[in-house]
Amino acid sequence: MQDYIIITDATSDLPVDIIKSLDIIVLPMEFIIENQVYSHYPDGREMSFCDFYSHLKMGRMSSTTQINYNTYKSAFTDILNEGKDILYISFSSGLSGTYNAARLVINDLKEEFPDNKILAVDSLCASIGEGLLVYLAALKRQEGFSIDKLKQWIENKRFEVCHWFAVDDLEHLKRGGRINAAQASVGTILNLKPILSVNREGKLVNVTKMRGKRKSFNYLLQKLKEDGENIESQTIMVGHANCEEDAVYLQQLILEQELASKVIICNISPIIGTHTGAGMIALTFVGRR
């Protein structure tokens, strides 16, 4: 077993059982509702996923903050004091300042721990796209990849992670400035579901709109068929923002059509859900981004 630790952010939206089984450390991230600050952990210990989305449905606003210097330093120092090296896989720099914040801490810690390796990789991924990349990296670590070899592998593989998001709540896209008020109003009336993706710069982009959930799910499946590579041997991830029935439905479609043999369902965290709202369905796989 390689003597280094993989660390990532709470934005990776990985299930707790995967995190534990692959010895991944997930740094909590904060969100704020009605002036109350909560730290989101993968097990939802301070606020459950269901309770969070209930707040949003009641019209309460949520905001998020990036991981601060002291949180990084404390988490990294604990591991370095154990004599282990660190490979940190961050949330996309195209969507957050977390990667650059971590780099500042790492530069300072290199002076204090000159004999340790402290490496950081910008995932250029979001939500379960980031989660899939971390999951695959952790499997490579189990195979015996050195920390340097794995860093190079991630930097290449991140461009092969395909992200597709079908958004249900247009109000949150309006608040985030991705659509205007008129588009949100018309889209809601016509039951339009925006389809978003992540580009090679790690930024969220609007791709198209589908009318109704079924058509949006079919679009996601079509992208899996068109862009996925060797998908029958892949692990596919489906994420949901408090709409598990939809996630199970999409999972069943993938399995019934024998597009993949393993589909993992993940909860979309409050950190991501703050910006997408409830009802979002996400699909991620390895292929041509």
Automatic annotation (TrEMBL):
Keyword Isomerase: no
Keyword Isomerase attributed: no
UniProt keyword terms in alphabetical order: Lipid-binding
Gene3D superfamilies listed in its UniProt record: 3.30.1180.10, degv family protein, Dihydroxyacetone kinase, domain 1
Highest taxon listed in the record's lineage: Bacteria
InterPro entries, sorted: DegV, DegV_C, DegV_domain_contain
Pfam family, one: DegV
Function: May bind long-chain fatty acids, such as palmitate, and may play a role in lipid transport or fatty acid metabolism.
Entry protein name: DegV family protein
